Amino acid sequence: MSTKLVAARLATSAGVTTVITRSSNPGNIASIVDYCQSLKQAQARVHQDTPSESLTPAEEYSLSNSISSLHLEALSKAPLHTRFLADPEPIRDRSFWLLHGIAAHGTVFIDEGAHRALASKAGLLPAGIVDVEGHFAEQEAVRLVVVPTKRQTPSSSVPNSNATTPLSAPSSTAESEVRSGVEVGRALVNYSAAEISRIKGLQSTQIQGVLGYADSEYVALRENVSLIKRERGGVRPATPSLPSNMSLEDLTSLGNP
């Protein structure tokens, strides 16, 4: 079942309505298509017969929530199925390919500021990179994971010249905080994992001094970055419900003039 849900997610993100149903009866497909078309026609007819400007806000709300209930007979004849509605703003072309068409060879962990910059159509600079995971070469795909920005405490921001701090490996707690981020997209990078590990957190002007060369000021150009669009308000519309002052017989009479 998980593979079906992944396929539905890919299809709907590309703007395709997807249906999962029992495959033992191929005729179910035609019946489901007829059912969906009848719902669209019923919705168009109701809105045509009842102009929205002639309704009060309460009546318009009740009518919009009751459209699917006007054709209970068609619903009872439709085969059992689950329908995933197409994304109204589908991902196209290169963005879809970056997200779903190529395998990621590693992970680049970025801070919240870098994520906001990417959302504003800016490129990924080394200053916004927190850590790197995996082994990948330049121009290979990586996952982009946002980690919470860690604020420095006043005591840690003021160095103590009399104290000596031994060098040690990062603690497991600090590493787990980095690894607990949220994946927000994919990118084709201009530098390898080893190179990004050396220039992470630095300004672009420092790349030349650290690596001895600077192929680009960006770790990833914005045209090579595709962000995952997060759903707002749930993954599907809420199930329509009957208004408290309206019965099922009232809805049926509305659909049968």
The secondary structure category is: alpha+beta
User: Tally the helices: what do you get?
Assistant: 11
Q: Using only CA atoms, what is the Rg?
A: 27 Å
Identify low-pLDDT runs: 152-171, 231-243, 251-257
Give the quaternary arrangement of the chains.
single chain
Shape: elongated
Helix content: 25-40%
Number of strands: 7
Round the mean pLDDT to the nearest integer and report it: 74
**Can you summarize the main beta sheet?**
5 strands, mixed
Q: How far is the N terminus from the C terminus?
A: 43 Å
Biggest β-sheet: strands ordered side by side in the sheet: 4-3-5-6-7
- Strand fraction equals 5-15%
Describe it.
The protein has 257 residues and is α+β, with helices and mostly antiparallel strands. It has 11 helices and 7 strands. The chain has helices at residues 2-13, 27-49, 57-65, 72-77, 93-101, 112-119, 154-157, 172-179, 193-199, 207-211, 248-255; strands spanning 18-21, 81-84, 106-110, 129-134, 141-146, 182-188, 225-227. Residues 152-171, 231-243 and 251-257 have low confidence and may be disordered.
Topology (SSEs and partners):
Layout: H1 2-13, E1 18-21, H2 27-49, H3 57-65, H4 72-77, E2 81-84, H5 93-101, E3 106-110, H6 112-119, E4 129-134, E5 141-146, H7 154-157, H8 172-179, E6 182-188, H9 193-199, H10 207-211, E7 225-227, H11 248-255
